[in-house]
Amino acid sequence: METKERPVGKVTSRLAYTFGAFGNDVFYAALSSYLIMFITSHLFNTGDQATNNRLISYVTLIIMILRIVELLIDPFIGNAIDRTKTRWGHFRPWVVIGGTVSSIALLILFTNMGGLNKTNPWLYLFIFAVLYITMDIFYSFKDIGFWSMLPALSFDSREREKIATLARIGSTIGGSLVGVVVMPLVLFFSLQSNGGTGDDRGWFWFAFIVCATAFLSALAVGFGTREVENDLRKNEEDTAGIGAVLKMLVKNDQLLWVAIAYLFYGIGINLVNALELYYFTYIMGFSKGFSILSAINMVVGLFSVAFFPMLAKKFSRKPLFMGCLVMMLIGLGVFSIAGSNLALVLFAAELFFIPQPVVFLIVLMIITDSVEYGQWKLGHRDESLALSVRPLVDKFGGAISNGVVGQIAVLAGMTTGATASSITASDRFVFKIMMFAIPAVMMLIGMFIFGKKITLTEERHAQIVAELEKTWGEQFEPESPEGGVLVEENTLVAHAPVAGEVVALKQVADKNFASGTMGQGIALKPSDGKVYAPFDGTIKTVFVTRHAIGLVSDNGIPVLIHVGIGTVALKGTGFVTYVNEGQHVKQGEQIMEFWDPAIKKAGLDDTVMMTFTPADAITDFELKVSPGVHVEPETVVIEVEK
User: Fold this and answer.
1) Contact assessment for residue 354 and residue 300, using Cβ atoms and an 8 Å cutoff
2) Phi and psi based region of residue 628 (left: phi greater than 0; alpha: psi -120 to 50; beta: remaining)
3) pLDDT at position 310, please?
């Protein structure tokens, strides 16, 4: 007999998932930024500098190669998680297992493995490679499982938004907090400060705290959350691999160019961010100053994200992107001449950091808009493929950065035994070229590509969405499985999707609806913002701007419910959807909600239209109510025949 788990409350679930996000990013920050610092500054001390440098180069090259290999493995990890069936769900077992194994492996990587790095360096390199790929794979199981489980925690969009917001706050604090505490912790536990770099003991206890936090946060997710079981979550298709992503990129030119621009930009900023601790340690001789910078970044990052909606209203994406990168380049210029002046260094570093969250959101918005662009251009929608591009580019850029940072440390003499006083003028020059000049070139290339090749503006996207609305129903044959045929009845009775006053469709201010281009239907001046399913059917399309939903009745008739005229320009502001594509709904079930004052404040018409499209999907149309009549969601307003 199968035992059922005890349910948990919403607050418990939110807190557990937030702590999970915190621990996940604490771990990733230590892995991506500070493991390299430990390797270059403490791991190899054979007594021969040339041998030390060669071993450091080998290790960082191994890390870069294995991180790129792991990109090829990610799709298989996603498939394995999707196919997992346990009484604890799809995701939670992998969060706990992945969190446990990766934490143990990372902790070992922050050691010299009992002196093996000196007694048998080649065996050490082999074991290091095995441990690293094991750690990376199990961390990917945890990371993919953790972020993929968000939709499984609730089918309520409002609850999802609350959980996602708290999780993003947790991850932001977690990733930034590691930078604040890394050197104070390392130096606190170290027996020798070694010019501000600490010793092996200090780095081990830093790693222990990081890995313990990651492990405990994984347990919190495992025991503090529950996955909602529903037929909607069943998945019969494999997760697409990198090959499918590349094929799609070739065809979707806007997605391709934004990915290339973001890759150059990402390599540039990853290099600078990864080298900042080296700057404080070896150029300034004040490693604890990095904690001050990280603390400022943690606060500034939260405010930067909060200001993005206001910036997006005043500026279009392309000039905003260009302005952000110009600000970052100015920051690099100031940084390069700041020397050991702490105030000037912090000022320059913030000029470089403040725009980063904004650039991330701009790129994310363009990638999201490219889903509709690809649908319009290619005739099919590749949402999951398109949205997988940004994480792939991030990981690839991070892998390149990890490999290069180790080589920079060797070239600049910032390896085992080095201190700020031992770094020569030549070393400083090499380091500054690598930290400032090379990233600046990378970012300039990204700016050039973005400026020349990105033509998918907000206005163009709105036009594309409007065109897709006109033709969305044409993709469904009434008698095909895609049409959602569950019953054989030819008659469909449709209820009002909103409460309000009936308006003649030909009188609405949108010529596409008024002329009948969008099909026959009804218009309503809403008395509230709640939108309901007009019949039993399946959700086929939830437009990314959330202002329109396409659904197909159980007997295969497509219908479009469109809230407002010109509301695509609001980009989802004031709209909440409560359904997902593929979800079956019953008549009278709430599927959307909109905030009417947001529409009117923007100077737009809030009329709600429901049309049957394409026109040849029905043979007979009868409007059951007259213009001027007030209707409720339970009122029958239309009857059609297939």
Assistant:
1) yes
2) left
3) 76
Our answer to whether residue 547 is catalytic in this structure is no
| Strands of the 558-565 sheet, one edge to the other | 584-585, 537-542, 548-553, 558-565, 605-612, 520-526, 500-503, 630-631
Return the SS3 of 498. coil
Question: 144, 79 in Cβ contact below 8 A?
Answer: no
For 565, phi then psi, to 5°, come to -120, 120
* SS3 at position 630: strand
Across the chain, mean pLDDT equals 85
Contact 593, 576 (CB under 8 A): yes
Mean pLDDT for 70-74 is: 76
User: Cis peptide before 614, with omega less than 30 degrees from 0?
Assistant: yes
Residues 636 and 494: beta-carbon distance below 8 Å? yes
The rounded percent of the chain whose pLDDT value lies above 70 is: 88
Residues 95 and 77: beta-carbon distance below 8 Å: no
* Cβ-proximal residues to 402 (8 Å cutoff; 6+ apart), any chain: 32, 36, 60, 63, 64, 67, 274
Residue 629 CB: number of other CB atoms within 10 A?
Answer: 12
Tokens for 41, please give them: 């500054």
Catalytic entry in 42, 90, 562, 584: 562
- Please measure the distance between the N-terminal and C-terminal CA atoms of the chain and give it in whole angstroms: 48
CB < 8 Å & 24+ apart, contacts of 239-246: 239/75, 239/78, 239/79, 239/82, 239/384, 240/75, 240/384, 240/385, 240/388, 241/72, 241/75, 241/76, 242/71, 242/72, 242/75, 242/392, 244/385, 245/385, 245/388, 245/389, 245/392
- Give residue-wise pLDDT tens across range 381-397: 666 666 667 777 888 88
Which neighbouring-strand residues pair with 620?
641
Least confident among 137-151, 193-207, 591-605: 137-151
